[in-house]
């Protein structure tokens, strides 16, 4: 049996594409092992799929001063040793990395042991963790055509991002029953990312009285971000996090407001949902979400509202105008299509595995 190690962690965006690949990997006859951090969010997500999981020590490379900058290199070195021991024991044919700092020692250990590694970059501009892995990678998959020029030409492959197939099979009827919503008014789905967004949450709640005149609102607010004073508001439902029900809520949505993480916007495109993207500010990130959002805006898939311009008034205007112009956004998404990321990535993995045998 062929064996593969999946790795990646730190945010849901580094994990969900790996989860999306699991059914195809198992169907293709791969035995799968996941390597992540000891107690990162990836552990819970992966163990829920029934996939064997091994934790290693991990650190973070920061561009700012932090006392952990003095200790994290030692955690990374420890993780490298642990990853090498796991790989020697499991003896995989291939590594697939979705990035995040926990993946760096795994990919570097694989290089040391002569195990080929494929890495995947979801954002338009590669993150530091993936850039540190380039020299150890056999192939580098990417999500945006613009990214190809930023990658080593002999390794770069445009594949799109793997999307969980179950997200495309939601039931509006199940969502109506679960939420108590009705078909009389359209549904606005707000998602602030796996950790939530205070800025987005605050603006949505400020605009809520006006939004509820035109929409029913499903609000996935993130951990510890619920507002108990709004729990009984007619036409409004709020959640910290949604798992099994997400596919049904996607099916129910007529328009979406979302951050612009690469995996999130790929799901929006695959689902064909008119949307307003509010990318994470460059003050709080390396600006990758802004570039992701602008690419989708340029292709006609999305309307972009910068976080610096976010307010009750601008949010209301963006939602209203996007919904009124929804036919144009839908036509652009239909014309542009979306690659079958699972099939494309599997093709790369299988070709690398075949070349090794």
UniProtKB/TrEMBL annotation:
<comment type="function">
    <text>Cell wall formation. Catalyzes the transfer of a GlcNAc subunit on undecaprenyl-pyrophosphoryl-MurNAc-pentapeptide (lipid intermediate I) to form undecaprenyl-pyrophosphoryl-MurNAc-(pentapeptide)GlcNAc (lipid intermediate II).</text>
</comment>
<dbReference type="GO" id="GO:0005975">
    <property type="term" value="P:carbohydrate metabolic process"/>
</dbReference>
<keyword id="KW-0472">Membrane</keyword>
<comment type="similarity">
    <text>Belongs to the glycosyltransferase 28 family. MurG subfamily.</text>
</comment>
<comment type="pathway">
    <text>Cell wall biogenesis; peptidoglycan biosynthesis.</text>
</comment>
<keyword id="KW-0131">Cell cycle</keyword>
<dbReference type="GO" id="GO:0005886">
    <property type="term" value="C:plasma membrane"/>
</dbReference>
<dbReference type="GO" id="GO:0050511">
    <property type="term" value="F:undecaprenyldiphospho-muramoylpentapeptide beta-N-acetylglucosaminyltransferase activity"/>
</dbReference>
<feature type="binding site">
    <location>
        <position position="194"/>
    </location>
    <ligand>
        <name>UDP-N-acetyl-alpha-D-glucosamine</name>
    </ligand>
</feature>
<keyword id="KW-1003">Cell membrane</keyword>
<keyword id="KW-0133">Cell shape</keyword>
<keyword id="KW-0573">Peptidoglycan synthesis</keyword>
<keyword id="KW-0328">Glycosyltransferase</keyword>
<dbReference type="GO" id="GO:0051301">
    <property type="term" value="P:cell division"/>
</dbReference>
<dbReference type="InterPro" id="IPR006009">
    <property type="entry name" value="GlcNAc_MurG"/>
</dbReference>
<dbReference type="InterPro" id="IPR007235">
    <property type="entry name" value="Glyco_trans_28_C"/>
</dbReference>
<keyword id="KW-0132">Cell division</keyword>
<feature type="binding site">
    <location>
        <begin position="11"/>
        <end position="13"/>
    </location>
    <ligand>
        <name>UDP-N-acetyl-alpha-D-glucosamine</name>
    </ligand>
</feature>
<dbReference type="GO" id="GO:0008360">
    <property type="term" value="P:regulation of cell shape"/>
</dbReference>
<dbReference type="GO" id="GO:0071555">
    <property type="term" value="P:cell wall organization"/>
</dbReference>
<keyword id="KW-0808">Transferase</keyword>
<keyword id="KW-0961">Cell wall biogenesis/degradation</keyword>
<dbReference type="InterPro" id="IPR004276">
    <property type="entry name" value="GlycoTrans_28_N"/>
</dbReference>
<feature type="binding site">
    <location>
        <position position="164"/>
    </location>
    <ligand>
        <name>UDP-N-acetyl-alpha-D-glucosamine</name>
    </ligand>
</feature>
<protein>
    <recommendedName>
        <fullName>UDP-N-acetylglucosamine--N-acetylmuramyl-(pentapeptide) pyrophosphoryl-undecaprenol N-acetylglucosamine transferase</fullName>
        <ecNumber>2.4.1.227</ecNumber>
    </recommendedName>
</protein>
<feature type="domain" description="Glycosyl transferase family 28 C-terminal">
    <location>
        <begin position="187"/>
        <end position="335"/>
    </location>
</feature>
<feature type="binding site">
    <location>
        <position position="289"/>
    </location>
    <ligand>
        <name>UDP-N-acetyl-alpha-D-glucosamine</name>
    </ligand>
</feature>
<dbReference type="Pfam" id="PF04101">
    <property type="entry name" value="Glyco_tran_28_C"/>
</dbReference>
<dbReference type="GO" id="GO:0009252">
    <property type="term" value="P:peptidoglycan biosynthetic process"/>
</dbReference>
<feature type="domain" description="Glycosyltransferase family 28 N-terminal">
    <location>
        <begin position="4"/>
        <end position="140"/>
    </location>
</feature>
<dbReference type="Pfam" id="PF03033">
    <property type="entry name" value="Glyco_transf_28"/>
</dbReference>
């Amino acid at each position: 049996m062929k064996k593969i190690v999946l790795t990646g962690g730190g945010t849901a965006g580094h994990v969900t594409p790996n989860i999306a690949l699991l059914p195809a990997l198992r169907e293709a006859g791969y035995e799968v092992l996941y390597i992540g951090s000891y107690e990162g969010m990836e552990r819970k997500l992966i163990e829920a799929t029934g996939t064997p999981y091994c934790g290693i020590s991990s650190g973070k490379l920061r561009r700012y001063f932090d006392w952990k900058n003095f200790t994290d290199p030692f955690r990374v070195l420890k993780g490298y040793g642990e990853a090498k021991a796991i790989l020697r024991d499991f003896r995989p044919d291939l590594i697939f990395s979705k990035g995040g700092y926990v993946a760096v020692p795994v990919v570097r250990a694989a290089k040391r042991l002569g195990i080929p590694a494929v890495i995947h970059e979801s954002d338009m501009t590669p993150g530091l963790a993936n850039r540190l892995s380039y020299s150890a990678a056999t192939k580098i998959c990417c999500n945006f055509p613009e990214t190809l020029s930023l990658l080593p030409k002999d390794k770069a492959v445009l594949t799109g991002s793997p999307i969980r197939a179950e997200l495309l099979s939601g039931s509006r009827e199940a969502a109506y029953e679960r939420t108590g919503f009705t078909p009389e008014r359209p549904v606005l789905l707000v998602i602030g990312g796996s950790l939530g967004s205070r800025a987005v949450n605050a603006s949505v709640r400020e605009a809520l009285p006006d939004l509820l005149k035109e929409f029913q609102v499903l609000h996935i607010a993130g951990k510890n971000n619920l507002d108990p004073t709004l729990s009984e508001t007619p036409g409004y439902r709020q959640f910290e996090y949604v798992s099994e029900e997400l596919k049904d809520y996607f099916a129910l949505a007529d328009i979406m407001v979302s951050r612009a993480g690469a995996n999130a916007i790929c799901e929006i495109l695959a689902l064909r949902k008119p949307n307003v993207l509010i990318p994470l500010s460059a003050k709080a990130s390396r600006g990758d979400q802004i570039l992701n959002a602008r690419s989708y805006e340029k292709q006609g898939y999305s309307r972009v509202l910068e976080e610096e311009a976010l307010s009750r008034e601008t949010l209301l205007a963006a939602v209203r105008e996007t919904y009124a112009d929804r036919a144009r956004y839908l036509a652009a998404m239909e014309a542009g299509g979306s690659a079958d990321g699972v099939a494309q990535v599997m093709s790369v993995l299988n070709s690398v595995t075949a070349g090794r045998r």
